[in-house]
Structure formats: structure tokens, C-alpha cells
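Researcher: For the annotation table, I need C-alpha cells for Aminotransferase-like plant mobile domain-containing protein. Please keep the output clean. Sequence:
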Amino acid sequence: MPALDGYDLRNGEQQGPTFLTIPGFAPVLRAAGVHDAVAASTAAVAPDRHALSALLSLWHPGSHAFRLPAGPATFSLEDALLLAGLAPSGAPLDRPLTPTEQDIRARLVVEKE
């Protein structure tokens, strides 16, 4: 596979400059609010294959959860955000839905049933 932004997709090794090292690009990423996500996606990670294999042996595809001795467990998007070290951003959705959003919600509920 070809390298994408200096990232070798075959083995996950860094092969040169990334978006973060291009002068002037990091401030653009910060202004867009995605700098931390890009930094996390380009970080070098050495997975523990034995631990990953042990964890995957507990996965149950039917329930989409890990079957642990204490009971089924899974992780949320918030867990992934915290594990990746990303700061939460954006406003909470603690407001009433607009009429357009109510209409979309109603259609989604009907389609789901």
C-alpha cells in the first residue's frame, strides 16, 4: 500500500513528516479542534499481542460485549475518548429538540420498529 502522509499503511510505521510537523498546519488543526485527534491517530503504538489475544477470546459477537467473570462488559465512546487522552469538546445536548429534529427523531423511531 502507498504511504499516506508519511505513514506506511502496511506496517504502521512512521515514514517521514506528518501533518503535525508541517509548519503552519498544527495551528490550523488546533483552530479546527481536531489537533488532539490527529496527534492520537499518528502516535506510534506497540500493541501487546498476547493481551489483545486474551481479550479477544472473551468477545461475544452476539452481544457485542466481553464476557468477563463479573458479567458482560463493553466500553463506550466516552471510555475510548478518555483512553485516547482526548479532551471532550462541543456543547452538551441539554436543550429541547427543534421541530425539525423532533420530526427526524419520530421518523427514526418508526423506521426502527
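Researcher: And a one-line annotation?
Model: Helices lie at 25-32, 35-41, 49-56, 77-83, 99-112.
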